[in-house]
Amino acid sequence: MKSIIDYLGKLERQITRFSLQVILMVFGAKAAGTYLSYSPFVRRTQARILWLHEQIRSRSGREAADRFVIDYLSARPRLQDYGIALVGTGAHRPSSERVAAALPRLLAVAGQREDASISLASALLERGDVELALELVAEQQGKARSKSSVDWPSLLRSLSPRHLYETTATASSTIGSPEHLRPGPSKNRLIILDEELSPAAIKSLAAGADKITLLQYRDLYGRIDLRAVQAEIPECQIAVEHGRSRVDRFHRRYFDIHQETLQTAELLSKSFVKNAPWVGEFISDVQGFANDLTLELSDMLFFKALRLESVYQAALDPAFDSVIVSFGDGFELFRLFYSDSALWQDSRIKGCCRSRKIKTVSKFASRLADMQRRATVGSDAPTLAHIASLQEQEEALPPVPPETVRRYLEQSATPAKYASKTRLPGRKTIGYVANDTRAYVASSIQLATHLQGHFNVDVILTQGNPANLLKNIETAQNDPYLPQETKGQRPGLVKVGAAAPGATATKAFSDVFLLAVGDTVREQFATIGRDVVVRAALDFLLTEGLSRAVLHTMGNVRAIATHLAEQSYAAIAISPIRSARNAQFATLGRENRVPTLAVEPHCLNSAYCRYGTVLSDYAAVYSDYYAQEYDRYFGIPKERCYTFGSPRVLRPIDYDPIAARKDARRKIGLHPGDPPIIAVPTQPMPAEHILAVWRMIIRAAKALDMPVRVILKAHPEEGPGHVGRYRQIIAEEEATDLCYVADVDIKDLLIASELVLTAYSVTALEAVVLERNVAIVGQEGVTYPVEYDKILGIPLCLTEKETLETIREALTLHGSAKSGAQQFKAANPHLFDNSTFDRLKEIVEDIIAKGPENIRRRQELPASLFVTAPFREYLV
Q1: pLDDT greater than 70 at residue 6
Q2: How far apart are CA 31 and CA 41, in angstroms?
Q3: C-beta atoms surrounding 395 within 10 Å
Q4: Quick check: 237 and 211 in contact, CB under 8 A?
């Protein structure tokens, strides 16, 4: 029966497409659109509407396609058609001007039904046509019936920036035409975005401002498309901030947030395990589980607090005479702004909701009213009241878990299903734990693929999409370092971990969890005291996600234990071990008597307080320097550390430094006879420092008595705002003829250079391996936690004069210059022969040979879950 229905559906599609093409060719676009709108024989699907739109555009041009959209939406549109025709048509959708001119026609049809009006408003918001949406809402408000199901005045207030202390009653008297609802004039406006908004939507929030700063709440690295926004408002000066703009990893405040959230996580974990003794029924190593749970909860609390801190500091900055918050679907920003009267009573700060989801906009007014009520009693008072209510209802914690929780935990122990599996006879099998993260997944899969040439390897995915990992496994077959005999041998892939708990189990467990930790929560709120940000993060997560994460972590323990018991791995590699879910394998591996190895694909330093200590039995690190670093601060003895290099820092095969330079110069667009290159790869640092260093480099290059080109390559974590400032300094120093900011492949730039100048970036290591001259540049009196100048034995330039001398020496003495790092090359020959993969194979073999007897005992593990190096502020 299904095959007959499928066949009839296919036949209908063919007939409809053919008939529409005939009508389009014979009678024109208007007739084809009318046929689609009114024919009782045609199903109006999204694919069909978009197909006909493209047919009209390609045959008759953009004007005809625009007419089709307007005519279609003025005829007999369904609710979903507004989004399909006005948004789904993408780059070829009608312009804002065209939609504005047609709005009366569209409203004549949409205005007959309130749900259609909302669908049209939603499509306009998604396009970024906020002004048109305001116009629509204002008109609908004027003619709304007394029994209207839509609160149009509230919707209008939601779209319009209002003071956070304004109530519905005080705001209603000021509502007028859309012109009265736009932001007023401002010298310097901060716009905080809870959700990503289109450039056109940002333009409407920037109205009246001479300068704006954009801060997207969930963005840790400033990835807003500055060029697109600037194109919308070319006359306005724009800056971009992000979650680490004001508090990066080397600020004291960053450290304090880390300490507070870690302490809170530890107390919550211990309190839960102590007060819910039934946990031992499902998890044998309760102490190990408590540590893993602390890692999970501390990460949740820390990164939530860090993003809130960026908003908090920016919102209170007196440099902004206007602050507009575009609230979204989440509650985090609501909790923050109504946690401190300094925020919600500040006359500079206004809030609105410009979400692309009309349902979110519709809820905004009631959410705001609810938060205003909470603010009068204390924003966390409802959470504490709920805990008190639970404690009154239950004299003691139940000795057993709720039945839905028990069922979830029992189901979590089912065997994992492989996405792919390979087993060759006569080989040991190892697990290779990875997660689907942008920074490290390619390196992890590359290493696992090389190991597959010697072992049966299961890539164990802890987080992410298996389809993405399968693509990476396929891509790894093209690795030029992969031996010919290993090509075609792909590691297996299995996702190990419990499914997220459902709503019923989560609700039942939430009450149990809050009962178990209630007293601890009350004490922590008192201890945190006036730390508004950490308090808001804890308050939010207690009602949105924390208990679910605890239950999910328990489920993961069950799933991992089941998998390890089934597979009997000879060893487990974990890369990187920093992820809380990856770190669980160190605990469960120890319990199952399987040795574990932390494979570090990067170079870590102990001054970054958020790096976890190493809880595995062994570690594979870049060089002897890092083995000593791990011994001192990461909690694992250097005799348990192996050096193997890094897949991220390898020389090209058959590397010839001179020939490679010629080829790389060609790749980045240089010609024979062009001046030598000085490469300047940057690292995310406080702007005041890195911009001062960049200015010093430019001035030194200008003072040279020989031609040169200085090319800056921005770090991937630096957003368009950083890049704009680099270019601005070039212009200020009148150096546009010799200094550039280029978006080129970093390895090509390093190879093409005669000298690499970097402010303590790991590219210093990579450049030395590529046999390039390297020097570190900084400022007098400013230290940095990773002293690459000492590690590599290369110059440290703290003044323009020292920089000039280093450049001149490198360009005249070449490899014999001090910046050539000759001593480092002599001491670390293994970093120059691409033996990384062979060394890792030997490491795994050695660990297997040592067997379970050499697994670390619990008393040998580090006392702290995070590095314990003395903290000091850098570059602040």
Answers
A1: no
A2: 15
A3: 6
A4: yes
Closest CA to 106 of 124, 90, 93: 124
Looking at 529-571, list the stretches that DSSP marks H as alpha helix, in order from N- to C-terminal side. 532-543, 546-567
Cα 445–449–453 angle (5° rounding)?
165
Closest CA to 521 of 330, 335, 332, 386: 386
> Which amino acid appears at position 393 of this protein?
Q
DSSP category for residue 318: T
Count other Cβ atoms within 10 Å, centred on residue 480: 8
pTM, whole model, 2 decimals?
0.83
Which two structure tokens, joined as six digits, stand for 299?
A: 């990460």
Position with higher pLDDT, 641 vs 529: 641
Report the distance separating Cα 832 and Cα 771, nearest Å: 9
To 10 degrees, the CA torsion angle through 765, 769, 772, 776? Answer: 10
Q: Indicate if the pLDDT at residue 566 is higher than 60.
A: yes
Separation CA 398–CA 765 (nearest Å) = 57
The widest CA-to-CA distance across the chain, in whole angstroms, is 87
For the chain, state the CA radius of gyration: 31
In this prediction, residue 169 carries a pLDDT of: 56
Contacts of residue 437, Cβ cutoff 8 Å, sequence gap at least 6: 463, 464, 579
Separation between Cα atoms, residue 537 and residue 578, nearest integer Å: 22
Side chain identity, residue 346: D
CA–CA separation, 514 and 706 (whole Å):
70
Residue 97 structure tokens: 């001007």
Q: Tell me if 691 sits within 8 A of 721, measured CB to CB.
A: no
CA distance 625 to 635: 15
Share of residues in the chain with pLDDT > 70 (%) = 96
Residue 690 CB contacts under 8 Å (≥ 6 apart), including other chains: 682, 683, 759
Contact 747, 739 (CB under 8 A): no
DSSP output for 446-500 = HHHHHHTTTSEEEEEE-SS-HHHHHHHHHHGGG-TTS-GGGTT-PPEEEE-SPPP
- How much is the pLDDT for 250? 80
Residue 8: pLDDT band by 50, 70, 90 thresholds? low
Which of 529-538, 547-556, 595-604, 753-762 tops mean pLDDT? 547-556
Pick the range with the lowest mean pLDDT from 49-58, 473-482, 550-559, 824-833: 824-833
In residues, how long is the chain?
876
What does the pLDDT read at residue 117?
86
CA distance 715 to 572: 33
Question: What pLDDT does residue 144 have?
Answer: 63
Strand, helix or coil at 625?
helix
Angle between the 286-315 and 580-591 helix axes, to the nearest 10 degrees? Answer: 170
pLDDT > 50? residue 173: no
- The three-state (H, E, C) secondary structure of 682-701, written as one string: CCCCCHHHHHHHHHHHHHHH
Query: CB under 8 Å to 623, separation ≥6 — which residues?
Result: 643, 645, 828, 831
Q: What does the pLDDT average to over 589-616? A: 91
Phi, psi at 711, each rounded to 5°? -120, 120
